[in-house]
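Entry type: protein chain
Record version: 2
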Amino acid sequence: VRWVFFVDDDFIGKSWLRAVELGCQLGLRFPDLTYGISIRADSLTTPQEKAHLVEMVNHGLTKVLLGLESGSPSQLARFKKRATLAANTIAVNALKEIPGLEISVGFLIDPLMTIDELEESVMFVINQQLEPYINRPFGTLDVHKGSRFETLVLNANAQLAFELNSLTWKCRYIDPQVDLVMKKAKELEAILAPAVDQLTTEYRLITRSPVTSKKLFSLKLSLAKYMEQI
């Protein structure tokens, strides 16, 4: 094992100091191991928090998945995220300033999203130059059975939730324009799938070998530029 990834917010939790200690111990005890973590935007709002992250990079941290979720204030409020657009911007800029760190950002489309909210997210991506870093451009929010978001969806339009498996609703989109965008996105993804699969396979083969984080970062940017040309 040469690389591991810690999901969600478990690595940092409520204590940066504990996270830094854990990250440093990983680097000291397993010098050939590198790792990635997922963090919230509101975990990276101060120079001190950025300094903590830099210290972890010095001890093996190579990738950060930043859960921005949205570039729309109203959608962030619907998600009940503590982060604001201002906090998202601060976190993004802080990550960009750390050399050799691979950055991945996540956005979500939910059944109640309007076309105006989608455009706000798109403009946020463009203004912050985040195109090369988005891990799932058309990722959708899972509406789980019994969740707060299930109540929101059903209250907005009971016909939105039309199929239930063991855990989640498969939902329509309340805005017809968003529904059209998602249909076009699926068509585009089907066209790009062979190229994406090939790039993913090549990327995984390379990352299994003992290469430096700088090389991995360069490769990630190359893949992003290639996909942008497509």
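Comment: The two ends are 33 Å apart (CA to CA).
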